[in-house]
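[Discussion] Sanity-checking designs against the backbone

I'm trying to build intuition for which residues belong where. Below is a structure token string of 253 positions. I'd appreciate it if someone posts a full sequence so I can compare it with mine line by line.
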């Protein structure tokens, strides 16, 4: 009798335990609620996959790198309307006066060549301009006396000779500082490539651009809207620098 009592008690206890136990949902598989995880400073919580999009369709709590295809957004206007600030102007003045201590600047007639230029990058085999977070992408301006470079900090070289000036190529001899060239002189070439609206930009210490040149791609600022724009919008968060394609100089010339 006592044995049956214990067996009955055990059976009731097991039944109640089984009924009240939380069972796995959906057969034990995770159920996705569609909620976006809260953004943190951890890499895995931030969407850094680069996609083509219109900024107005993006959630900037999640996205920080995207390719702007609008051609007229605030990100394009930031580049088009950018002006040197007082620090930039003072830096350019400092370098030009340091290079040309006698202040005997020569003024060169450069015809109708574009004066304001921006970088063009190759990203996944497509050409894009770039608007980084909290700064500007490297750019430069050609005046009748100097070439002024702008990025986080500005600097400049002084034009000492116009070697070539044509619709397809410009070559300038520049006076510079010892940090850039031991001879205080270097050469700049801007030359059209086989790609529309894209030029090669090269520095050389000797003027032999095939041997010792420093190579980039540029376009006149007025052509910006012919390109899609890679944007980094992470003004208060971790910045992720995109990895651009390595340039094959021979194929671009």
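Best answer:
Here's mine. Compare freely.
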């Amino acid at each position: 009798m006592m044995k049956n009592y214990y067996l009955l008690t055990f059976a009731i206890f097991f039944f109640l335990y089984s009924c009240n136990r939380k069972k796995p949902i959906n057969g034990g598989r995770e159920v996705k609620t569609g909620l976006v995880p809260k953004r943190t400073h951890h890499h895995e919580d931030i969407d850094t996959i680069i996609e083509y999009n219109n900024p107005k369709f993006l959630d900037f709590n999640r996205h920080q790198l995207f390719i702007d295809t609008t051609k007229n957004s605030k990100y394009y206007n930031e580049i088009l309307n950018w002006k040197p600030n007082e620090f930039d102007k003072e830096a350019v003045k400092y370098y030009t006066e340091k290079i040309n201590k006698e202040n005997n600047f020569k003024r060169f007639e450069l015809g109708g060549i574009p004066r304001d230029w921006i970088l063009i990058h190759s990203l996944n085999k497509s050409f894009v301009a770039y608007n980084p977070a909290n700064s500007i992408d490297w750019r430069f301006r050609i005046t009748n006396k100097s070439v002024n470079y702008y990025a986080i900090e500005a600097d400049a070289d002084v034009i000492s000779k116009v070697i070539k000036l044509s619709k397809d190529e410009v070559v300038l001899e520049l006076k510079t500082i010892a940090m850039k060239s031991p001879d205080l002189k270097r050469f700049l070439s801007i030359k059209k490539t086989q790609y529309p609206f894209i030029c090669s930009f090269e520095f050389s210490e000797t003027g032999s651009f095939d041997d010792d040149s420093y190579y980039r791609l540029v376009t006149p600022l007025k052509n910006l809207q012919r390109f899609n724009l890679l944007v980094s919008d992470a003004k208060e968060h971790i910045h992720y620098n995109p990895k651009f394609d390595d340039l094959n100089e021979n194929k671009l010339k």
